[in-house]
Design goal:
By secondary structure, the chain is α/β, with parallel strands linked by helices. It has one domain: Flavodoxin domain (Rossmann fold, 3-Layer(aba) Sandwich), CATH 3.40.50.360. Strands 1, 2, 3, 4, 5 and 6 form a 6-stranded parallel β-sheet that branches. The radius of gyration is 16 Å and the shape is globular. The chain starts with a strand and ends with a helix.
């Protein structure tokens, strides 16, 4: 029997009631058995500063990088702030991409979902993040693209997905990600 692929889930919102965190938890509940989704926290990462990239970088960086390196894939969930990704998520990408040429994100397999109450579902953030990941050689799932709008109406009181069409779409998204990992996993 093959073990499940560990998927590091990076949630780009620190808000306690974050729609992105709620979606991360809902996705973990509906993921196929071959994917084990686990949130890797990014809120305590010191801002990337190359001066701190010594033989003893900040412990939070080391722990974060080890979690990414041990994961078989990465799933990014991001809100949209001013048509881009939140600073905390961009910082996590920067920390995960270093030291230069040996970063834990370099050449990983990934997928991106943007989540927003707005109608366009974080389209700008999704594509800005994809641009940064392309520079690292990250093999990002090209399709289906996932821009989840109406996030304020997406969840039931128990945290499950309340919109059947969205649940069905996300199950198909996870199945496509599962195939993408199998094809491009390193």
């Amino acid at each position: 029997m093959t073990s499940a692929t560990s998927v590091a889930v990076l949630v780009g919102s620190l808000r306690a009631g974050s729609f992105n965190r709620q979606l991360a938890q809902a996705l973990a509940a509906i993921a196929p058995p071959s994917l084990k989704l686990e949130i890797v926290e990014i809120g305590d990462l010191p801002f990337y500063n190359q001066d701190l990239e010594t033989d003893s970088p900040p412990p939070a960086w080391t722990t974060f990088r080890q979690r990414l390196a041990s994961a078989g894939a990465v799933l990014f969930l991001t809100p949209e702030y001013n048509r881009s990704v939140p600073a905390v998520l961009k910082n996590a990408v920067d920390v995960g991409s270093r030291p230069y040429g040996r970063g834990a994100l370099n050449n990983k397999v990934a997928a991106v979902i943007s989540v927003s109450p707005g109608a366009i579902g974080g389209f700008g953030a999704n594509h800005h993040l994809r641009q940064s990941l392309a520079a690292l050689g990250v093999a990002v799932l090209p399709a289906p693209e996932a821009y989840i709008g109406g996030a304020d109406k997406l969840f039931a009181d128990d945290g499950s997905l309340a919109v059947p069409a969205t649940r069905e779409f996300l199950q198909k998204f996870l199945a496509a990600f599962e195939q993408w990992i199998a094809r491009h996993g390193r």
